[in-house]
Specification:
The chain has about 180 residues and is α+β, with helices and mostly antiparallel strands. About 25% of the residues lie in helices and about 40% in strands. It is built from five helices and ten strands; from the N terminus they run αβββββααββββααβ.
Length: about 180
């Protein structure tokens, strides 16, 4: 019986550590962005920020709607209307560029899967990237000229959890 006690203690510690890394009891609430023309669910009050992105065709506004939770978990939707010449490019190369930017110099792409989103079957890509300090899941969607990114960032245990799935799967482009 003595040999089981340390093994059980180690198992309890491992399970407790994983559970402690995930925000407990997330309660999602519907969120709709009229300006962004999308809806989703977020687990808390949404913070909206904008930044200017410089392009050869002139500046573009990138909008971030996000919620930050404990343990460095962040759920976010971003959108931008790219210049006309970029918007006319086929979806594949545009999605590749976003994947590569998500990966950065220190990341590793773990999964990269083509998807379609909504009844309109907008082209998209689901990407899981591992970085030294965190992981990122990014669902990139091209709806007309607009580029959306639906992101979950944090410990891999949360980024690959059912709560992360619920968030990503709830994204819908609206009119």
């Amino acid at each position: 019986m003595r040999t089981r006690t340390p093994a059980l203690a180690a198992l309890f510690l491992a399970v407790s550590t994983v559970a402690a890394q995930q925000p407990a009891g997330l309660e999602f609430q519907p969120f709709a962005s009229a300006a962004g023309r999308y809806k989703i669910i977020f687990p808390g009050p949404v913070k909206t920020e904008t930044t200017e992105v410089k392009t050869p065709a002139g500046p573009r506004t990138l909008t971030f709607d996000s919620v930050t939770l404990a343990n460095d978990v962040r759920l976010m939707v971003t959108y931008v209307d790219p210049p006309e010449d970029v918007a006319k490019q086929p979806p594949g190369p545009r999605l590749d560029k976003v994947r590569d930017a998500s990966k950065g110099a220190d990341g590793r792409v773990v999964t990269d899967k083509e998807v379609t989103v909504g009844a309109e079957k907008y082209p998209g890509r689901d990407v899981l990237v591992e970085k030294p300090l965190y992981a990122v899941r990014n669902r990139v969607v091209i709806a007309g000229p607009r580029l959306y990114q639906v992101l979950v960032q944090g410990p891999k245990e949360f980024v690959t959890s059912r709560d992360a799935d619920r968030f990503l799967d709830a994204f819908e482009v609206t009119k």
